[in-house]
Design a protein that fits this description.
The protein has 291 residues and is of the alpha/beta class. Helices cover 27% and strands 30% of the residues. The protein contains nine helices and 15 strands. The longest helix has 15 residues. Bound molecules: ribose-5-phosphate. Ribose-5-phosphate binds next to strand 12 and helix 7.
Length: 291
């Protein structure tokens, strides 16, 4: 298997190589009008390949994914697999207001239409998106990575910062030998990027709590959850999330919170930050493909 990366996943190259995987080379250049030009360096004819490409907010990332698929197919790859560590636009899985559209479903259907031999994703945001990706899409979860990282010092409570994600907290609790309690918060979003935590269900007083979520974007959801945990007397707070987007002032916001540790995978590139522990996603994703 030869792995091909786009700019969205270039940060995973060294880990793929370290784990003994072959990484192919392409060249991206631009015409005078800035139109993107792609060229394969090397041979893929008759070989199985895997594209590792995320869909980021910047639309070029989706275009790169589509173009790389075309490049590898036209150059005779025997089998094209697709690994999407982070699938952006997934929060737009339905029109949020009048005049809007399900742009996340559009992205998922576009990816499905490529008909990769195997389509592998990591912690997809919603069931609607999962369905739009088709029955053969495989969704991997970062929860086993978190469970392994927590094994030495497991939390006493696992908290979901919104009611819709309580299943994730339960699944993580089951992966830990100590089987911690599960708690959750009623969260409301009066408008995009603004979150309010209303009520906490569960007993966290004097307990070591881990908040688990699929992503950290503005950090608003977690900041609200942490405030409520402090009000309710939690003794220690840690955070685990799969996708670290860290928009706006998320880092400053989170750095100012009394949180012991933030565990985040590198589905998206992660700068070194105080208190942040980065978990390598490559073994989880690449182990699904042979070679
Ligand atoms: C919401 O449904 C998600 O699971 C995350 O909680 C949310 O997207 C995080 O966004 P932010 O960090 O901006 O609150």
């Amino acid at each position: 298997m030869i792995y091909f990366l786009t700019a969205s996943t270039a940060h995973l190259r060294s880990s793929l190589v370290r784990h003994g995987h072959a990484v192919g080379r392409t060249e991206l250049s631009a015409f005078a009008d800035s139109e993107r030009r792609y060229r394969l360096k090397g041979e893929v004819a008759g070989r199985p390949v895997a594209i590792v490409a995320s869909v980021l907010p910047a639309p070029e990332s989706l275009f790169d994914l589509l173009a790389l698929d075309r490049l590898l197919r036209e150059n005779g790859a025997a089998e094209v697999n697709l690994i999407v560590p982070y699938l952006g636009y997934a929060r737009q899985d339905r029109p949020a207001g009048r005049g809007e559209a399900s742009i996340g479903i559009m992205v998922a259907e576009l990816i499905r239409s490529l008909k990769p031999s195997r389509l592998i994703l990591c912690d997809v945001h919603s069931e609607r998106i999962r369905r739009a990706l088709g029955p053969s899409a495989v969704e991997l979860s970062a929860l086993p990575l978190f469970a392994a990282a927590l094994a030495k010092r497991p939390p006493e409570v696992i908290l979901s910062p919104d009611a819709g994600s309580v299943g994730r907290a339960r699944r993580l609790a089951k992966l830990l030998e100590s089987e911690p309690q599960v708690a959750w918060i009623d969260k409301v979003r009066p408008r995009p990027n603004v979150a309010f935590a209303r009520q906490l269900h569960g007993d966290v007083r004097g307990k070591d709590v881990l908040i688990v979520d699929d992503m950290i974007d503005t950090g608003g959801t977690l900041a609200e959850a942490v405030k409520l945990l402090i009000d309710q007397g939690a003794a220690g707070i840690r955070i685990a999330a799969t996708h670290g987007i860290f928009s706006c002032a998320a880092c400053e916001r989170l750095a100012g919170l009394p949180v012991r540790e933030i565990m985040i995978t590198d589905t998206l590139p992660q700068a070194r930050r105080p208190k942040v522990r980065r978990l390598d996603i490559v073994p989880l994703l690449a182990d699904r493909l042979v070679g």
